[in-house]
Amino acid sequence: MKRNLESLKRSENLDLGVAAASPGFRCEAIYAMVRRVEQRGDVVRHAEAESGGNLRYLDLVALARATRIDEPFPYLIVPGFLRSIGRAELAADFPEIREPGSFPVGDLHSGPRFHDFLAELQEPGFRAAIERAFEIDLTNRPTIVTVRGQARPRDGRIHNDSRSKLITVLIYMNEAWEADGGRLRLLRSPDNLEDVAAEVPPQAGTLLAFRVTDHSWHGHLPVTGPRRVVQLNWVASAAVARRERARHGFSARVKRLTSLLR
Description:
Strand order of the largest sheet: 1-7-4-9-3-2
Order of helices and strands: HHHHEHEHHEEEEEEEH
């Protein structure tokens, strides 16, 4: 833990001697930086306590150490959020998806280790880590989980998630990603895919989480072929969750029927 706090201090560029000697030095600014470091240290301690070595797939400490960026909307990126020891297991147990689009997890067949991973996503410790990261209360907020396995060119069109969604979490499961397309871009504007605030390659183990706002625009360059991602959303109400599950379920059945008729 001492090493963790030291690394946090370095990440905040906390150099008291330099700050004190600089023009316009204010003690309040130094105290604010110290408090920020201490708060982040508390978050790391919470994550270490909550994971308790019981989570095989999720690295809550890596999530706690990640820095939230607030412009153009609140988001954080965590490479290596999935522990390396479990990635091969999840790749082997990932559901077989031949059609593009999002599928509810209840409509898919996957192996037992993938089910264990999904159970970890519903653990109180993961919810608490997201709550702290985004300073939001998700108590009694239901979740919906969908899975994608294939990409089509139109999937990357710029869009914003429905405001009935509070938080979007994407966890990527592609072992490597060389293509220019398919790298999710967080955007500053709704009509320019080049107005990029951040770009996230969909590589194995990477987590992207963002708070849904009226301007949380995102999209990616077109790509076709396998693109594995699990999406979890906290939503506003149980009614929203039921509606979204029904919508995704109906869409999944249509896609399968269309595939069989080809």
